[in-house]
Write a structure and sequence with these properties.
Elements (H helix, E strand, L loop, with lengths): L6 E9 L2 H11 L3 E8 L2 E10 L8 E6 L12 E10 L3 H10 L8 E3 L2 E7 L5 E7 L21 E9 L3 H10 L3 E6 L2 E5 L8 E6 L13 E8 L2 H13 L8 E2 L4 E6 L5 E6 L17 E2 L8 H7 L5
Parallel strand pairs: 1-4, 2-17, 5-8, 9-12, 13-16
Antiparallel strand pairs: 1-13, 2-3, 3-4, 5-9, 6-7, 7-8, 10-11, 11-12, 14-15, 15-16
The structure holds zinc ion.
Zinc ion (ZN) binds next to β1 and β13.
């Protein structure tokens, strides 16, 4: 018995400036701002969500923007790079676009059968565009700035940097249903469920890399998707039976979550596909109002007044 996850659900990272973060992900990358909320544990700060038009699982990148927080250090024990899937042949467009907008990027690389363009967000978060030779049937996100034929389709993969990959690989394969797909140098690629872009976890064994330190420009946790509440409860039991310390189920309004730390140090979450981001705003107007969990609704005016402007 293992947790029956079907791919990536969302990835949450740390930023230092909410307005700059919003501009980068919506205007430079052409993602949709799908939810404006607050950090449930710290309602004086935002929780910002970007994704495709319908805020589908597998496309959602979220940020805790803490104004003025120090930069972290990307390193081992972290989700080291977050990769988006873009159509094959689109990297020339993206390279020109990033250059013209003053975004630092690396040279195009080949990895497995794909072309990769590495770059950083304004806080130094490691991002990649993967122009994949595989079929990615997910729709492009409509954007005023990025034509559909080049647009991001959702996540491609998350790369975990590790001192030693074996215990993490065992959790993925024995505890979460992942299969080893291929190996290239220090990188091993795993896939789950239907396979394809949006399901991949790459384990990068880099013992010489320093241990990562959380802060702006680093990933806080990665979340895997699971079909429903019943499968999630089963996942919790099977992970505990393997010896993981797993949180109880936490209701995050748009999904339910359990959390556990993989042996290399990366915080994992398993989140349900439903009920989704349209429970408190229609799909057409996602991200246009401040969404608060019910327990914070009575404090809306004070919370809104304390949050920095995003415009
Ligand atoms: Zn999460």
């Amino acid at each position: 018995m293992h947790a029956t996850v079907t791919g990536l659900h969302h990835i949450t990272a740390i930023a230092s400036d909410p307005k700059r973060n919003l501009d980068f992900y919506t205007k430079v990358l052409g993602l949709r701002f799908v939810k404006k909320s607050v950090n449930q544990d710290d309602p004086g700060t935002y929780h910002l969500y970007y994704g495709d038009y319908s805020a589908s699982p597998g496309t959602i990148l979220t940020f805790f923007p803490w104004i003025g927080i120090a930069r972290g250090r990307p390193g081992t024990g972290q989700a080291y790079a977050t990769a988006f899937s873009v159509p094959f042949g689109s990297l020339a467009f993206w390279r020109d676009r990033l250059t013209n907008l003053g975004v630092l990027h690396g040279n195009t690389e080949s990895r497995f059968n794909d072309e990769i363009l590495p770059f950083n967000d304004p806080d130094g978060l490691h991002l990649e565009l993967v122009a994949t030779s595989e079929n990615d049937p997910r729709p492009p996100t409509p954007s005023a700035d990025v034509p559909d034929q080049f647009a991001i389709r959702g996540f491609h993969s998350s790369t975990l940097a590790l001192k030693e990959a074996k215990p993490t690989a065992e959790l993925l394969t024995q505890g979460m249903g992942y299969l080893l797909l291929g190996q290239s140098g220090h990188r091993a690629r795993y896939t789950v469920g239907p396979g394809g872009p949006g399901t991949y976890i790459d384990l990068l064994t880099e013992p010489a890399l320093p241990r990562g330190i959380n802060g702006a420009g680093t990933v806080h946790h990665i979340a895997f998707r699971i079909s429903d509440d019943t499968a999630q409860v089963a996942a919790l039991s099977s992970l505990e039976a393997r010896g993981s310390e797993v949180s109880p189920v936490i209701d995050r309004a748009y999904f339910k979550s359990i959390y556990y730390r993989e042996p290399g140090g990366v915080l994992f979450e398993i989140a349900t596909d439903g009920p989704g981001f349209a429970i408190d705003e229609p799909v057409e107007t996602l991200g246009t109002t401040l969404s608060l969990p019910p327990r914070l609704e009575s404090r809306r005016r004070a919370i809104e007044a304390a949050l920095p402007s995003l415009t």
